[in-house]
Amino acid sequence: MKDKQYLLIPGPTPVPPAVTAAMTRPVIGHRSEDFARLYESIEEKIKMVFQTKNDVFILTNSGTGGLEAAIANTVNPGDRVLALITGNFGERFANIARAYGANVEEINFGWGKDVDLRAVEEKLAERPDYKVVLATQNETSTGVLNDIAGIGALVAKTNAILLVDGVSGVGGVEIKTDEWRVDILITASQKAFMLPPGLAMLSVSEKAWSVIEQNKSPRFYFSLPAARNSFVKWNTAYTPNVTLFMGLEAALEMMLEEGLENVYARHLLLARATRAAARALNLSLLAEDRCASPTVTAVYAPAGVEADALRKVLKSEYGVIFAGGQGHLKGKIFRIAHMGFVGKMDVIIAVGALEMALAQLGCPVELGAGVCKAQEVFLKKAQA
Amino acid sequence: MKDKQYLLIPGPTPVPPAVTAAMTRPVIGHRSEDFARLYESIEEKIKMVFQTKNDVFILTNSGTGGLEAAIANTVNPGDRVLALITGNFGERFANIARAYGANVEEINFGWGKDVDLRAVEEKLAERPDYKVVLATQNETSTGVLNDIAGIGALVAKTNAILLVDGVSGVGGVEIKTDEWRVDILITASQKAFMLPPGLAMLSVSEKAWSVIEQNKSPRFYFSLPAARNSFVKWNTAYTPNVTLFMGLEAALEMMLEEGLENVYARHLLLARATRAAARALNLSLLAEDRCASPTVTAVYAPAGVEADALRKVLKSEYGVIFAGGQGHLKGKIFRIAHMGFVGKMDVIIAVGALEMALAQLGCPVELGAGVCKAQEVFLKKAQA
Asked: Which of A166, A229, B285, B308 has an alpha carbon within 20 to 30 A of B145's alpha carbon?
């Protein structure tokens, strides 16, 4: 059944029927009272997910556009920026800052490792003149979750503002924007928010506004002051993707109906089951348990197997789609997302297909052993 | 994720995205050239699935309406009808004949058994005056496949016409309407044809027409002569469900693109894997291998477990939906469909969830053991 696919990549993620249905509603004009009410409804719910009282904006662009909006509004040429890098998306965030002329200093913790707070503390103590600190909540390329609370507490003691890429985390992993002192939090529609790609959501603190107001970098589409001016009328500066807004409202309703705590617990459970299954198949995990992402798990292909060849068998024989590795991990790892509209059976699907694909590629694999471990994790939870 | 369900019942079955997309096309008028071309395209393809040169009709009603059309056009009060019964749907077919005043003689082979050709041969030899013989290709209530070729060869030697309920078989199991001498074959949209419910398809042989033309039973909506009169202009007698017609064309295109032989082989493989998995879990199967349905498998719940309680856990905990038992098997068996838009992972889902649900109900079950057996069946096939 070539048409039957199980999309288990870290975005875009599967879209629930209720969200798809919402997006089939007739398009409406964006300068209308109907749109204002839609935006108002969404804004209230996003603030609950972000745990913030800060201003929240929804931009019609993908996550990278959201990251650029954060940079373009805060970085002038020559500004000192500290980038905390744990993988591909940390590097991208730093590169966007460089594109705006920033003087970027990196701490690269290595792919598969998380941010070491002592290193951040030392660096911030060394130089008091950082204007902006960049961090990644959930590093999609490695399946690592960073300690944003810890980073936020350190940055808050300085004059710098903290920009957090929460693209593949927010909605699947708890974030306390205000309590953790995140000045700009950026996320996007196509990950834990269960929507097609096309929207970025971001929040802006008072501390960030004071930087933004003095910023001189060229910006028009990404102008946050322009967004704020329109927002007073529950509007957007430029034409928003109204269809995705309708879908976003439905997705947020689903998340709040399930209960955010339950959403986060579900992601964590699926991550634990995926990791237990991989270990039962004698596969090595890229990230340690301590900093393992609840939304995506990176697994090394076994010796002698090219990860992308494995992914090909998975797709062609079973319709199961994992992501590959990025950068120097390309061909070495595969990544299984358990993000958004996913449940226990998605892990069973992932592991059941993985076992068969490994066997087909000649790996010694005990069929059912990984599935059994995932089942045990689910049953233990059910009995708890 | 309460919205995420795996529908594994013997109809309605999951609808493929390409079929759903086709059904979102704007509605068209049914007395139009566009509709005539659509009907023409469908008719040609249905004849390929039915393996027939007979007339084929598409009625806007569910399968039971199709069965009634077959009866209403062939049975007069007092007519002698022989009903070959292997389960609930065989009984229903006989009851429809009774509703039209038929003098029905039943051979009931028992639920879980298939038609014994020797018994049919004897019965037909005993009384040469049967006007109609009723048979079920695939008995949905028990997961039994009957030998229509064998039955057809016996009935063809008599003056009786053979009416075959192919509702849960056709499209998933090969049928050779003409070669097997099936006079009226009836099937429906919501099973192996991968559509929502609402259409019945049937074919009518020359031998059947000679009976239909002399039939006196009241019929209007179900009138096959009326259908034939409209069909000369590629039309229907009354308003057809044009949206389902659009979907049917897309579904038939999918089936022919995959290749009918491949479609049938896929169903058979999924049935074999399901049965192997059930046996590995020490569960008893209702039907013997010899007459096992390729589209649905009936399994006894283990001792001490109510089948419907098991189904409740499967649905609420895993979103996996099996059918229950019918008639005297209610609460004793559950039925797993592998019918229509289904592939290997559907069996993994069914078995993976079944193992967990059994464990939750306190059954001694070796987690992963059933999944492993299903995987072995798939891998053996892949290597063959």
From this structure: B308
Whether the Cβ atoms of residue A231 and residue A145 lie closer than 8 Å to each other: no
CB contact under 8 A, A343 and B266: no
Residue type, B195: L
pLDDT tens digit sequence for B269-282:
999 999 999 999 99
Q: Is A327 on the interface with B (CB under 8 A)?
A: no
Asked whether the predicted pLDDT for residue B249 surpasses 70, the reply is: yes
pLDDT above 80 (res A2): no
Given a cut of 80, whether residue A3 has pLDDT beyond it is: no
Q: Do B6 and A382 touch (CB under 8 A)?
A: no
Order of all β-strands in the sheet with A296-300: A296-300, A333-337, A323-324
Token reading at A294: 């609840």
Average pLDDT over residues B41-54: 98
Q: What CA–CA distance (Å, rounded) separates B72 from B251?
A: 29
Q: Which two tokens stand for residue A20?
A: 């798809």
- Whether B64 shows a pLDDT value over 90: the answer reads yes
Contact assignment for A266 to B1 by CB distance below 8 Å: yes
Read out DSSP for B190-211?
Answer: TSTT-S-S--EEEEE-HHHHHH
Mean pLDDT of A277-282: 98
CATH number of B17-256: 3.40.640.10
Cβ of residue A321 closer than 8 Å to a chain B Cβ? no
CB pairs under 8 A between A and B: 115
Q: What's the CA gap between B193 and B172, in Å, rounded?
A: 8
> Tokens 């038939």 correspond to what residue?
B252
Judged by CB atoms closer than 8 Å, whether chains meet at A352 and B348 is answered as: yes
C-alpha B146/C-alpha B182 separation (Å) is 13
User: Residue A57 burial by CB count (10 A; 0-12/13-18/19+): exposed, middle or buried?
Assistant: buried
Q: What is the DSSP letter of A363?
A: -
* pTM recorded for the entire structure: 0.95
Give CATH superfamily name and number for A6-12+259-383: Aspartate Aminotransferase, domain 1 (3.90.1150.10)
**A343/B261 Cα distance (integer angstroms):** 34
pLDDT (mean) for A28-45: 96
pLDDT at A384: 67
**Is the pLDDT assigned to residue B384 strictly greater than 70?**
no
So where are chain A's domains? 6-12+259-383, 17-256
The partner residue sitting opposite B356, judged by closest CB among A18, A352, A379, is A379
> Which B positions 226-255 lie with beta carbon below 8 A of chain A?
254
From chain B, pick out residues whose CB is under 8 angstroms from the CB of A356: 344, 375, 378-379, 382
Average of per-residue pLDDT values in chain B = 97
In this complex, the residue of B1, B16, B368 whose CB is nearest that of residue A343 is B1
Residue A383 above 90 pLDDT? no
Touching check for A369 and chain B: CB below 8 Å? yes
Chain B interface test: which of A13, A24, A256, A344 (most B C-beta within 10 Å): A344
Task: Answer whether A4 sits within 8 Å of B368, measured CB to CB.
Answer: no
A330 burial via Cβ count (<10 Å: 0-12, 13-18, 19+): exposed
* Among the listed residues B323, B320, B303, B326, the one whose alpha carbon sits nearest the alpha carbon of residue B357: B320
If you write DSSP's letter for every residue of B104-144 in order, what string do you get? EEEEE--BTB---HHHHHHHHHH-TT--EEEEESEETTTTE
Contacts of B318 in chain A (CB under 8 A): 343-345
DSSP element (H, E) containing A188: strand A184-188
List pLDDT tens digits, range A177-220: 999 999 999 999 999 999 999 999 999 999 999 999 999 999 99
- Measured at the alpha carbon of residue B203, what is the angle toward residues B199 and B207, in degrees to the nearest 5? 150
Cα–Cα distance for residue pair A193/A171, rounded to 1 Å: 6
